[in-house]
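Example 3.2
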Amino acid sequence: MTRPHFAVGDRVRLKSTGEVGVVVWVWHDEVVGYDRHVAFFGNEFPPAMPVAPPYVLRYAATSLERIDGATDMTSVPQSESSTLFDPEGIDHGRIDVSALVQHRGVAAIDSLRAPACERWLQRQGYRLVHLDCSLPFPELLLELGRLLRWEEQFGHRLEMGQANLEALADGFEFDVPAGGMTFVLRHPDALAAAEPEWFDSLLAISADYSLLQLCRGRRFFVVLVVDRESTLPGRAYATSRIPMAYWNPNARRHGFLDP
């Protein structure tokens, strides 16, 4: 297989402006050749964890140059490459690709199709983490804190009075495996109705975390399990919108069939 000139994880500079960033996505376009999604940080890389999330833009490889001293991924054996998907076989009809590329790490799935979708995700190597959003808010915080290992991070449990959104953003950290992780929100309508500001912020924090994981060469995205009468698909949060519930009529593309 012909390898792209750049791969996920390469540090690059945009020739026209001098902006620097990290390649977070690679795929082959029949018209322009290999395209890149690059997470840009501005005119220089931050010395530590960035205060604001990077902005992601799409460019052809000819618009970019590798920064001196950056890893040349073309010399890495295929088995050791950090490319998240086969760049010649990326299928935008897949729910994970759709979530990561088109919807900032957020997807929705009809509750009737959710079990088959979850089995498919597991077959692709994703680890699934579930949060029941119908729990009373104090219990939901405790469960989310358990998932995030809150007490291990901060020495106390995630409870009412300590669940401000800035703290949640600081402590939102999962152990994302090489195969990727999916954060499954069950009954999200209940939380959206009871705590709308908190729900929207949870999605925004999750979306930012998804982008951060792409920069690390890992896949993380959120799946909202919605009923058909749900009003969440299309709902605005932060600067984005929850996508419509994923579906593709071609079973060979969505793959939600047990082998």
